[in-house]
Structures are given as structure tokens and as C-alpha cells.
Amino acid sequence: MTDLWSQLFSFQDFGELLVLVRNSVIAGAVLGLVGGLIGPFVITRNMPFAVHGISELSFAGAAAALLIGVDVVSGSLVGSLIAALLIGLLGTRARERNSIIAVLMPFGLGLGILFLALYRGRSANKFGLLTGQIVSVDNPQLGWLVAISAVVIVTLIVIWRPLTFASVDPDVAAAAGVPVRTLGIVFMLVLGLSVAVSVQIIGALLVLSLLVTPAAAALRLTVNPRLVPVLSVTFAVVSVVGGILLALGGGLPISPYVTTISFTIWLVCRLVSWRRTTAAVKQRRGPRVPLASTGV
Fold first, then answer.
1. pLDDT of residue 56
2. Which residue, 167, 221, 193, 257, is CA-closest to 35?
3. Sequence-ordered alpha helix ranges (H) in the chain
């Protein structure tokens, strides 16, 4: 048991190791910002399933890039954008969208597994595409990640108000002249970019813990449109950066740590929400009056 604990949480020479993952910590903070901002829209627009579908084709693109020896981030971007465009153009309705995603997911995963089976390089590179790596971000990749994240953030800021309107009530928004379909496609492309940069850090299988879980936790605490993104970003940054730092001590993939922190935050928020709801119900009902005191 002691050996297992030391394998999970060993902080010997932690300071020296921290220098090696400086880029990953910066990347994790940036991804937390991106995931925290886009997550509430993913929840409101009922698209968690789309995140997983995009991540599968992103994984296939990254695996193809690994096989032919080009930049993995570029391959991940191509796969993500293809998936996002297909879902955005063909899945105008929720039922159609879910069907398209259900078709794309196994196809992307199958392609990714094929490309990894053909790849003869380090096995850690294969595993890292699925579960993330803490030392995989070099200076050029960090530059690309920051640049793509900046594009995502600026785009979200520009379309924030109409996208919020279209996400909450698309029919009324369309009647008011909001270009709902165009916004939907733009959002899918932005989501595709977010998934692509996230795969490099947290892996393709567990992107939901960054792009969905923090926002879901924030929405358990408040529905204030200004406070939700702040909480979502905070939860996402804590999950990713905290996961990287803990994984550094254990020398294990970061995804179990990130998902555990993210899930714990969601669980605490869920309990707080439940206690609030219970207290509000009791307050509305008022104190119980014993039957004897009423003369019954």
C-alpha cells in the first residue's frame, strides 16, 4: 500500500522536475481558460456528446500525423475541424446531430487505432494521444497552442451575446434576426479548435473533463451569466494545472489526476446545490406544527 501511495504521490526532486514541465503548466492554464469559457455553451447547447465525437477524429488526425512524421498538433487540428464542420453542417437538429456523432465516433477511433498500430516509434507517444502527456509541449507547440487559444477566446468574445441568445432560445433568436445557423457553424469550428489543443495535454479519451465537467459544476452553483464563466474557468484551471503538478510527482499520465480533481469539484458543487435546494424547500414549507397544538 505504501509503495502504491508513493507511486501516485512522490514529490522527490519535485522542484527540478517542475522546470521540465513549465511549458505544460502554462499550456494547462491556457487550456483551462479556453475550456472554462466554452464549456457553458457546450452545456447550454446540449453538445457534450459532440465534444467526444470531435475528440475521436482529432485523435485519428493526431495519430495519422504521428505515423507520417509531421506535427501532431496539425493533424489533431485537421481531424477536429473536419468533424466540427460535418456535425455543424449536417446536424442542424439534435436527433440528426447525435446520429452523425454516433457514426463519426467509431470511425475516428478505428482510424486512430489503425494508424497507431502501423506506427513503429515510442509506445509512450501512442499512449499519450489517448491519456495526455506532461512533458510533450515544446516551445513551438506552446506557441501554436497559445495562438489557437487566442483565436478561440477572441471569437467567443465577439459572438458572446448573440451566441448566448441563440443557445438559450434558438427559435426566438432566429425570429429576432440572429443568424442562428451561421453562429452554430462558427461555434462548432471554435469547439473543434478547443478540442484539438486539449487533446495534446489531456488526451483524446478524457477531453470531456476539461470542456464539460467544470462548466457543469459551475452551473450547479449559479445560473448568473457573468458568474458561470468565472467559476467554470476557475474550476478548469485548477483541474488541469493541479493534475499536471500531481502527475509530475507520480510520473504517471495526467488524465487520472485531472479527471479526479474535476469530478471532485463537480461532486462538491452538486452537494452544495442539493443542500441549497433542500433548505429552500424546507423554508417554503415553514415549520411543522404538531397536531396536538392545533386542537386536532
1. 86
2. 193
3. 2-8, 14-20, 22-44, 48-68, 72-90, 94-118, 123-131, 139-168, 170-175, 180-202, 208-211, 213-221, 227-250, 255-285
CATH architecture, domain 2-283: Orthogonal Bundle (1.10)
CA 131, CA 198: separation in Å to the nearest integer? 11
**Cα separations (Å) of 70 from 131, 139, 204?**
20, 16, 18
Domain range list for the chain: 2-283
If one compares 162 and 23, the residue with the highest pLDDT of the two is 162
How many CA atoms, within 13 angstroms, populate the side-chain half-sphere of residue 76?
A: 26
Rounded CA gap, 262 and 198, in Å? 15
Condensed to tens digits (0 to 9), the pLDDT of residues 208-224 reads 888 999 999 999 999 89
Q: Per residue, what are the HEC states of 224-284?
A: CCCHHHHHHHHHHHHHHHHHHHHHHHHCCCCHHHHHHHHHHHHHHHHHHHHHHHHHHHHHH
* Among 101, 106, 81, residue whose Cα is nearest residue 90: 101
From residue 235, how far is each of 62, 117, 205 by CA, in Å? 27, 36, 20
Statement: the pTM of the whole predicted model exceeds 0.90: no
pLDDT of residue 228: 95
Q: What is the pLDDT of residues 260-288, one digit of tens each?
A: 999 999 999 999 999 988 888 777 776 66
